[in-house]
Amino acid sequence: MAYLAPNKYTEKPMKSILNYCDGELCDAIGGAWLDNYEPATGKVYSRLPASDARDVERAVNAASVAFPLWSALTPDERSVYMLRIAALLEARIEDFIRAESQDQGKPEWLARVMDIPRAVANLRFFATEILHTSTSAHETSSTVLNYTLRKPLGVVGCISPWNLPLYLFTWKIAPALAAGNTVVAKQSELTPMTAFMLAELCIEAGLPKGVLNIIHGMGADVGAAIVESSAVKAISFTGSTRTGEYIARTAAPKFKKLSLELGGKNPNIVFADCNFEKAVRESVRAAFHNQGEICLCGSRIFIERGIYDRFRDEFVRQTAALQVGDPMNETSRVGALVSRDHYEKVLSYIALAKEEGGTILTGGSIVNIDGRCSEGWFIAPTVIEGLTYDCRTNQEEIFGPVVTLVPFDSEDEAVMMANSTGYGLTAILWTENLNRAHRVAAAMESGIVWVNCWLVRDLRTPFGGVKNSGVGREGGVEALRFFTEPKNVCISFGT
Ligand code: NAD
Fold first, then answer.
1. Residues of the domain holding 444
2. Quick one: which of 41, 137, 370, 480 is 20 to 30 A from 154 by CA?
3. What is the 357 CA–ligand 1 centroid distance (Å)?
4. 494 lies in a domain?
């Protein structure tokens, strides 16, 4: 269990998040701590270990020792452990919902409908997928048979970001563990709470020691040590393109397998022949869900000129109606931004958009909330028009509640503008014309295209980006492929 520590800011003692290493909860070896903030109040409410390379080394050693036993278990046996953890998580779902919302700033209702159920689903999906997968065999001739084994890699590193904390954390560790690897994982230092609570469940579930290790701390200390460790055979990373570049540079000479899920600046193209009501409603959701802090959000909205004014007016009306407020309040549609730094970054992009000639149609400023959230990091959902498709505001990732509206005159122009950024994660299309849907989907430079929907997820589908949005795919069989190494055995049984 977490223990309480004195809080230098208030009289109330605060919770200490701990590392999970070799089956036990522990402090960082160096004994240092980092403050953990509640975004809605702007105040420190817990602390986490400021771990370093020594803690990572200890975790890597524990994972190396655990690997032979864990990888020798049958898929059935590994599945039982993982399903037990999923059941425990489900049994404590309300605790996790509250914790995720407090730690990240997202509304509780959103953690209830999205984050935590999805974390349960991730664990269950990969725990059961391994019961149904097969490998291939090639009958080369009547006396030669090739068959392919898929072996776990060994110790793998999983590094995840702050926007969908437990959702993305489990999305990585579940396939890694299911495939028979042992894991050293790092959750973002901004949102460590639910990964810590998951560690408590792993202990309760009797997960053998060293199979999963969760080390908290800064990216440059803990993340870099995981990437640099020669005993770590693969890195599954989700985060910014900048950190992804560093990881690629560091891991490539060590010949590690890499899965990099990076930033996005996703186009949302609205054709005049769309289902108008649905396109507006879902475009608002795609823009401001989770405060716009989802790599899949549609932040550049391209609208066919014939419906531009009508779409803009209705989009702005619905956006202005979104209530920004205390994440604990069921009526709050938009919560707090994750950190002061990120809040300031988003505000700086709103200032840049104005400098670049943009007109703010709604939002554009901070939101002051009375009571316990008076010092929280809230920004009003912001809609901007009048910018060119190639200005910085329309090319760089903001990752907050800010979208731009840009009209277009032809399908070719829409495709050109949509594909004009360095990113290529997802694209969203709204059209009732089937031919156009197929044609434009094929032309999008992105790993994922949603047509007449957004964030509809089937965990079996390949997930990932192209260009600066990453390398590799997660999800379904792709994830199990990443976390295993194929070995072909060619056997001749002729004389
Ligand atoms: P970030 O790159 O700052 O951090 C991500 C993780 O990497 C954190 O755990 C961090 O501590 C760690 N890290 C930082 N420096 C490191 C280093 N030198 N070595 C190893 N690890 C290091 O990203 P963030 O700000 O936490 O997340 C936001 C970004 O994540 C956005 O760009 C967003 O688009 C992206 N994202 C992408 C996806 C996707 O699926 N493609 C999903 C969610 C978020």
1. 266-459
2. 137
3. 31
4. no
